[in-house]
Write a structure and sequence with these properties.
Elements (H helix, E strand, L loop, with lengths): L2 H32 L4 H18 L4 H4 L6 H13 L7 H24 L17 H33 L6 H23 L12 H25 L3 H7 L13 H20 L1
Helix pairs in contact: 1-2, 1-8, 2-4, 4-5, 4-6, 5-6, 6-7, 7-8, 7-9
């Protein structure tokens, strides 16, 4: 692989890891300040997601394959605790499906170790003709694994935004869910890009390198969207709140705002069921 390509990939991975660690730290500070402990799942997702890339170059492969991608479980837990704490949810079904897919991924990776080949996306070592169909099965498995939490997060945040947009709640709070929802769509894009990565050449090919760059750009947009959504800059809050006149003059804390949102959503669901 050309030196310039290797350097570009290494820089992008460093940027990706650094941004995720920084965002995890910002969210941790926000959680401590606001006591919004549901953010812990999101914090662990970002921090562990960044660390797994660091471990990729330090752990033996046969150990690494058992540790990769479990950070996605914490994203599922975050969704459950944030949006479904007091109501029924498909959490157990979604978590069970994720675990089954994750085990299938591990099995495929272990089989390839037995064949003296490491399978990955991008594929770094040559595959025989008989291994190519298994590679595409693996790509589908990886896509589903990443799509499960990203699709659920995109769906629930955009649905929450739709439910709240006409409510008497500060606009910056409502727009938070729109920002997170749209950025989550880029995480969905990241998942489906796995299907487009070539089975041969990886980042060595111009096409593979382009897909790799889109990988990192899409996940960075998702990451930054969550940072802006959950650690909203004061100037952005003021801009989004322009022209807003609250019916209640009392200034609410972020915890009280979240409780108000839960109350509004519960009322709307109760009215919808009647």
């Amino acid at each position: 692989m050309p030196t310039n390509t290797l350097l570009l990939i290494f820089i992008l991975i460093l940027v990706y890891s650094f941004v995720q660690l920084i965002i995890g730290s910002f969210l941790l500070a926000r959680m401590i300040k606001t006591k919004l402990y549901n953010l812990l799942g999101l914090i662990l997702f970002f921090i562990l997601n960044a660390l797994q890339l660091i471990l990729l170059y330090n752990l033996p492969y046969h150990i690494y394959i058992f540790t990769i991608n479990w950070s996605l479980v914490f994203l599922l837990i975050f969704i459950q605790l944030t949006f479904y704490r007091e109501r029924k949810s498909p959490f157990k079904i979604i978590l069970g499906l994720f675990i089954v897919i994750r085990i299938l991924e591990i099995i495929i990776r272990v089989i390839f170790i037995g064949l003296d080949t490491k399978i990955s996306i991008p594929q770094l070592s040559p595959l025989s003709e008989s291994q190519i169909p298994i590679y595409y099965i693996f790509a589908v498995v990886i896509t589903i694994e990443n799509a499960i939490p990203s699709l659920w997060l995109a769906y629930i945040t955009l649905t929450t935004y739709k439910s709240l947009k006409n409510q008497d709640i500060e606009p910056w709070v409502i727009k938070r869910y729109l920002i997170i929802g749209y950025s989550s769509c880029f995480f969905v894009l990241f998942a489906f890009l796995c299907l487009l990565m070539p089975y041969e050449g990886g980042f060595e090919t111009p096409y593979g390198l382009l897909i790799g760059i889109f990988f990192l750009i899409s996940i960075l947009i998702f990451t930054l969207g969550n940072l802006i959504g959950w650690v909203m800059p004061e100037r952005l809050k003021l801009y989004l709140n322009r022209g807003y006149q609250p019916s209640i003059e009392q200034e609410l804390s972020e915890v009280e705002i979240m409780e108000k949102i839960k109350s509004k959503l519960s009322q709307r669901r109760a009215n919808g069921n009647n």
